[in-house]
Design goal:
Blueprint: H1 7-35, H2 39-50, E1 54-56, H3 57-63, H4 68-80, E2 84-89, E3 92-100, H5 102-124, H6 129-150
Antiparallel strand pairs: 1-3, 2-3
Helix pairs in contact: 1-5, 2-5
Length: about 160
């Protein structure tokens, strides 16, 4: 693609980055203020809660946006804080599960209410159903392209 064609998508790129930063800052600030949680900790707790309270570390790592070493360090801190615990897999001595503690489960369920209220105010009052469908379609397309670039075997 010739360099002159960059203007076709450059405004969209800049808006995506700017909007992502503003939205992320808002949800991070709300989560820290209201629940003393980072979004990374909330993300882990939310994925665990959605999975019934426990996931294998490989499955958890693929669901969140952290490197394996970043996830391991985060889980160490969350374990020390009493939010999760690591459990050995009885079927595979090399594998470990991350599981929410009662404290972690209560915290994520409480945090979810405020988090979803903020998202509802942000998306629900701004976007109609067609806008949401269009945004979802576009983000899936961009996500798939990014995954293919990162892992050429991904679909």
């Amino acid at each position: 693609m010739p360099a002159g064609d960059d203007t076709r998508w450059m405004t969209a790129w800049m808006l995506l980055i700017r909007t992502h930063t503003r939205l992320w800052d808002a949800v991070e600030e709300q989560m820290r203020r209201d629940h003393r949680l980072t979004m990374s900790r909330y993300d882990v707790l939310a994925h665990l809660d959605a999975a019934g309270g426990r996931l294998g570390l490989g499955e958890l790592a693929s669901a969140i946006a952290l490197s394996p070493s970043g996830l391991s360090k985060l889980l160490d801190r969350m374990d020390a804080s009493g939010l999760i615990r690591r459990e050995p897999d009885p079927d595979d001595q090399r594998a470990v599960f991350a599981a929410t503690t009662p404290r972690g489960r209560a915290l994520v369920r409480s945090a979810r209410k405020g988090h979803h209220a903020l998202l509802r105010r942000t998306f629900g009052t701004t976007l109609n159903d067609r806008d949401v469908a269009d945004l979802t379609r576009i983000m899936r397309k961009l996500d798939a392209a990014a995954r293919r670039r990162h892992d050429p075997g991904a679909t």
